[in-house]
Amino acid sequence: MSHKSMVTLDGNEAAAYVAHMTNEVIAIYPITPSSNMGEWADDWSAQGITNLWGTIPDVVEMQSEAGAAGAIHGALQGGSLATTFTASQGLLLMIPNMYKIAGELSPTVFHVSARSLAAQALSIFGDHSDVMACRATGYAMLCAASVQEVMDFALIAQASTLESRVPLLHFFDGFRTSHEVSKIEKLPVDTIRAMIDEDLVAACRARGLNPDRPKLRGTSQNPDVYFQGRETVNPYYTATPDIVQGVMDRFAALTGRQYGLFEYVGAPDAERVIALMGSGIGAAEETVEHLTALGEKVGLVKVRLFRPFDPARLIAALPGTTKCIAVLDRTKEPGADGEPLYKDILTALAQAHGEGELASMPRVLGGRYGLGSKEFTPAMVKGVFDELAKPAPRNHFTVGILDDVGHTSLDWDPDFKSSAMQGVTACVFYGLGSDGTVSANKNSIKIISEETPNFGQGYFEYDSKKAGAITISHLRFGPNPINSTYLIGNDEASFVACHQPTFLTRYDMLDKARKGGVFLLNSHTPPERVWDDLPRRMQRTILEKELSVYVIDAYGIAAATGMGRRINTIMQTCFFAISGILPKDEAIAHIKEAVKKTYGKKGQALLDRNYQAIDAALAGLHQVSVPGEVSSTFDRPPVVPDDAPDFVRQVTATLLAGNGNQLPVSLMPSDGTWPTGTTQFEKRNLALKLPKWDQNLCTQCGKCPLVCPHAAIRAKVYPAELTESAPEGFLHATIKGKDFPAGYQVTYQIAPEDCTGCGLCAEVCPIRDRKDPEHKALDMVDAELIHAQEKANWDFFLDLPEYDRTKLDASKIKHAMMMQPLFEFSGACVGCGETPYIKLATQLFGDRMLIANATGCSSIYGGNLPTTPYTTTPEGRGPSWNNSLFEDNAEFGLGLRLAVDKQTAQARELVARLADRIGSDLAEALLNADQSTETGLHEQRERVAALREKLSVIEGPEARSLEHICDQLVRRSVWIVGGDGWAYDIGYGGVDHVLASGRNVNLLILDTEVYSNTGGQNSKATPLGAVAKFAAGGKPTFKKDLAMMAMAYENVYVAHVAFGAKDMQTVRAFLEAESYEGPSIIICYAPCIAHGVDLSNNLRQQDMAVNSGHWPLFRYDPRRTGRGENPLLIDSKPPSIPYRDFMSSETRFSLLTRTHPDAAERFLQMAQKQVQTRFDLYEQLAQLAVQKSPASE
Amino acid sequence: MNLTTKYLGLELKNPLVPSASPLSRSLDIARELEDSGAAAIIMYSLFEEAITAESESMVRFLHHQDTGFAESTAGYLPDHQDFQNGLELYLEQIRKLKESLDIPVIASLNGVTDSGWIKHAIELAQAGADALELNVYYVAANLDQSGAEVENLYLELLKELRGEIRIPINMKLSPTFSSVGNFVKRLADAGVNGVSLFNRFYQPDIDVGRLALRARLTHSTSAESLLAMRWIAILYGRIENLSLGATGGIHTAEDAIKLLLAGADVVHLCSALLEKGPTYTALLLGDIADWMQEHGFESVEDFRGRVSALSAPNPAELERANYLSVLDSYSHSPGVRV
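Output (structure tokens, whole complex):
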């Protein structure tokens, strides 16, 4: 076997490898979990790697999946070999073109990492909902169940489609397969070449549109022939199963791996059989092997080719002894009498039985499993077999959850384990996203897989939070290929590592340890005292399971060797030293080799530091002598406080504790509705440093609450007497200025458990101590110094009353920042450049705000469970939020506006009609209210309350109708929020249409200039010369000028803002946009970690962006035209620093000077010219004389 | 007409030498400079600190991109392609410039640690640089460090370098030495082949909006060249085998001519080229030639140093502040057309 080339990679890379090798046009749009396939392809093309025909495939990123599918359709019609990668909503957007491509019998393979669809909620995780929505498109559907199969089936798919002309959807489970790292056999290029028939490729070329032999496709057909035309394809579909099987047989001859359209494993005389497709096969096969070894008559049908469905081969695969079949679908079709695979199998069997080809009809049951990457384990498989053994097994069941509403769920024994784990070494690592645990583990798998005969598997659980994200790595090693497609369970891991001591009280991680296993902890507590750091439950587990405990001060070593907080190679070294999977010296040599590969060219100093850290790790690793008894005095603290609302205690707390899998259906909201204001219960304590306020030095400018990305520093003004009950050490100062009652106190208070320690508040603080310039009114200090005090202060602060909004002047920052933020403690990145804008909007308008949020970062930190940052005022008002899709957000928000406008209009009609009965004064006041100020709004709310009271005693349907909608008489603020991916690309058509609609909506564009959420892909917002995924050689074109496009409408309020450069301009823009009775768009500059800059410099980067001319500040207010003024106001000065200074401060630009220095210099020169030209253009526009036009007032 | 001059032992076709600036980053621009008549080119400065810092930040942002977040598992910036560090690129650029230009290429180095300077200087020489300019960008902000100590830093560095490399060494000095002439003499004794007077430090500015410092790049003005003019005039002909370069504020042919009259072997151009483009060199050369013709000079040597301390009709002007009379006559910057 030594001639075989074994590689360690994940499913996405495996698919992309074959796709890149066998295609020439690749058009994609990024979507999780498929993005990596396109990124690999782009990366290889950028490196000049050629395909089978010696040419570099052209990889094109489109504006949406609909665009990608259109481009593929075109490329296919042009006679090219073309492919794409997608998932979920992206696949749905491709459906119209898929019908076309199939209707035209164009061979192509779409590689899909199958993912859930957004229904009651979005889920980025794996199931077959997306692919099942495509089963009527005419695509053949081939499903791979493992990383090896992904590579193999990608080729089988390509060869098959060329022969059958039926386009093929090749899919595998998102995350479980797409992201599982596994040691597999790489297909040699010769094998790939042998599988691709050049005559068939030539046939594709010949069918392509060509003016030298003109023809026409895509006609419009009438009732006379459309039907017949549709039936022409039948022979192709009839032939396809044979063709695919033939290709599989040829593949087997070349590789030794034989696949079938349906494959059976298990007892030859099985009575109970499970049929399923996808990664669940791994768990099912293990269980069948385990049970058949025990003599049970069970079996498994692996479904490979789902479309065209081949009943004859299915029946041939089933043992004749089969009495009962459970067909498991990883999808849900509400309202259907069973899911697709179940129905197809049932139909196939019933047809065969009816036609006399199947003597006895087995009982066929359908069940759902694994939706949204729900675990599917041998225990669950066993549960299904157990059900099949019952005299009256349940149909339409679910497995893996507790359904106490529909009572569909099967029981299973969580302690059941298959024998497949015998001989397998399982290891679990708990790390922070940023500490490199995952990459070190991937490297460990590579080392073990490539340097030993062992097979390796890695699967990684990621976080829904961006700041302080936690990762759990599941690694398995063993002498045989590993097909355990589920997480490492309790009592299975021989090695458990905790890379962060703070996790000790958060996760019961030692539950995973097997008896006699090892526990490795990173802690600065010395070995002789570390035992006392462990909670009681953990100590008990160590004693019961007789675990060996090791400790290392990885942070100490990292700091001492200049590695900062990068502990991954240190922990990796310890893993190898303790586990003994490889001889220690050999392992260390391999780790160093990997380090050299990464850092070799970047300088000896970096290399030396890593080597030193590795060597120091060995010296710093200590075994802890475990005392004989539990001695700890503490245990895991309660997840949420006892006085939290019921829902939070029952549901949110369960999610926070990591026990969401145990939540029964009954506790889940049935329509996706969740309460807001829940991040306050998720105390994450991420900050290593906290800001300390000096109340005597502070001038109360309000800049700190403005810039805080997490609303973790707040201001309140309140009467002095309230401080009497304050805890000792609570800080306050007399409010400055005449806007507030004399003697009132002000406090700028931090939320120590919610602060992420980004330091932006201290950075922005303009006040330095004259005597000690290092000391500001806000200083970052070690968290432990003030944490306890500030926690007490924060609790007291929360109970202080909010200051009366009607007495605040929101156009002043100091005042605006006294308003309660209704967006707090989100999971956004430390130092996020987007969230301050959202927070500001909620401060100004939150109590009457409706938010339509495009999918992206803002929908993730805005609405990703377990908690949401949107919250309420003490009166219970606050933003009401929804995320429809990525592509339709502007339209969705317009719909909200239409609903509000219609209901308001109707309410006004009813008020007018009922004026006599509710009192003409009140009616008059309600209808003519000026709601342009907080006072006006407050008075209108009071009128609405009065109206309600009146209505309660008025009879008749009109009064009842008005009761339902009278809230809408208070001015609503509709906000359409999203990132540049939505606004510039996928949603631009909608943005444009909504701007043109003239309706009163506010578009808030959080422009990071790159797709941040899906991992930094190029967008039309990406500036010239910036490096991004799909722009590895630097973006060769200028950024789209969205503001200019919006201004062209002339009736749209447009603002270009950067709060870190000019906060006052930002606040003014928000107020003006909201008050404008028409469409407004605010384009916000938002520094992002994708820029390759430390976000502690967020504000500096905004400043540089403005001063270099990269981001001019301006406001375009159509109302000014009505006053005879030019509508455009330029708020920033002409470019005053070289563009080079801005570019060189961010890795997204400076990387290019390393990889493509000539292009970098060329782009720089172009950009330098362009920023000046653009500024000049804007300035000239701002100076044009304007005629007063009353129409635009 | 003979415009040739000798500089650092190199024969130059004329005295116009673009100084360290971003212009040398692009091969195309460098070629344009040569075609426009530039007699040599000094490359942009290699900053030792910048190389280290850049390598670190590149590694951090490219190789440490783990986010732990499920939608961006591969980080944000494409990291699969390899990249070179700043030093490698610089060496590569020397090689490329040497390949495509006929004029001498002078490398420019700005370092911090002794070992860094020496190591990098050797590498620059090996890459083919015709000479090395040390751009010692050192702000003596340490109140406990005396002027003598600062001077010693320079001298020690120079001595060590001299022991390691053979190519000519030029030192670009700041104007803040208390006895410029004496210091230059000691540098010459220690083996320097030339000095450039004077380095312009980027002056930080204060942002009154944010009450904070902000970096600001301002181009030089002609007025700034007068400081170099004085010192070149004083040094001209006084130290054997020492080339004198004038740098800072040379914008017009008149500026250049004045410095040559003061005794400069070459005049360096930076801001003027950044503002007016590389082809401006040709214009300056033409103007200088016109002036020479007007005044009947056949070669640069004919008039170089004619208004230096050695030969000026009123050399005391160079040494004495004589500020009372200057103040009395004040209308605009002396000698500068405004």
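Chain B has one domain: 5-328.
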